[in-house]
Write the structure tokens for this entry.
Amino acid sequence: MHFDTLLLMSGTAMKVVQLFVALSLLIVLHEFGHFFFARLFKTRVEKFYLFFDFLFPFSGLLNFALFKKKKGDTEYGIGWFPLGGYVKIAGMVDESMDKEQMALPPQPWEYRSKKAYQRLFIMLGGIIVNVILAIVLYIAVFSIYGEEYLPVANAKYGIMADSTARSMGLHHGDKVIAIDGQQVTRFEKILPSIVMDEGKVITVERDGQRVDLPVKPGIVHSIVSGTRGTFVLPRMPMVVEDVAKGKQADKMGLQVNDSIVALNGIPTVFIDQYDSVAKTLAVGQPITLSIIRNGQPMQLTGTLPEDRIVGFYKYVDPEHYFKFEEIKYGPMAAIGKGFSYTFEKFGDYVQNFKLMFTSKEIKVNESMGGIISFGKIFPAEFDMQKFLMLTAFVSVILAFMNLLPIPGLDGGYVIFLVWEMITGKQVSEKVMERATSVGLILLLALMAYANGLDILRLFK
């Protein structure tokens, strides 16, 4: 696919392409982790598949592949059912549920003939590769692009507060100083400090005075449910980025980089002020825009059209207004940052997952999502830096999810192996088969539930 074709894609199509590429890469590398350790310990791998060549989790239904090729003892292929991938390791109870093989005497090249610690590495192989991949991607991003963030102090106009933020007492123009007494230095940390760290009190500067605002019950729920906006953003001036040809703004003479300081005589220096006044206008009502152009005040007149669209775009990128801090990393510093950032993100996701079950305000049915939710995190326009960062983060998520102690996932097998290493007693194959069957059905139910929530949200 040519790069210019990528640029012409719709936003939704671009999200889908990025999601498909990222997940395909992560699935292949995850399964390669199992494959690598299996071959390292001289264990035969019979299949290596991207996607399933059967109707998961029913290994005997609709068995066909879009592509397959046998090389050595291993059949490599691409299945038709795009919900993951797998490696079929000889002598192992897995999603293939090959009971005929398991009924035969163990062979030296089989998984069940290997020592417990070797089987443990084989099972952890995918998770290990996911973590290593995240580290490598983060190292690459930090070494190539460095790091950029908006210091709270540089958001000189304070915050724009959405309806949720205003309901707890925050005002447009407040400057966030601290949360629970801890100074906030990065603007991007305000929201996580409230939601993930369960902040209780926000301290702001308002008209030169310090004001403490408690995070009221229901605030976190409103933020997470995503029904009321973005909580807080840097407050930005009302500056024109572009003007639509032939629309009312064009007829009035509005130009790029004009600063709109008043609408019908009411001050609108900031975006939140303009939006508030614009909502009160009636169709056909005369409108007067007071602007600053090249340092000179001017007034433009017109009427509000029937579609209520004046026809201009405003700058909403904080980088247009504020100085962002840039951190450049040398090779060694990038390596250190890659490691620390990976485990920071892993810890963040663990905390986020825990809050779904411990927080009174974060509900599972509002926070959990499936493939559509994954797709939404990718930007509508391709950006290599963002793509690499998001792919690394999804790799962290896959590592964590596969660690969950659910039979059928790597973590489920690890629990059985740890039990064996502690007690010296191997779990019977019959128990493994039953546990795996239950686990696979549970996984299918969880996937159906998560993706069902996504579909319901689309209709909402």
Summary: The mean pLDDT is 89. The radius of gyration is 27 Å.
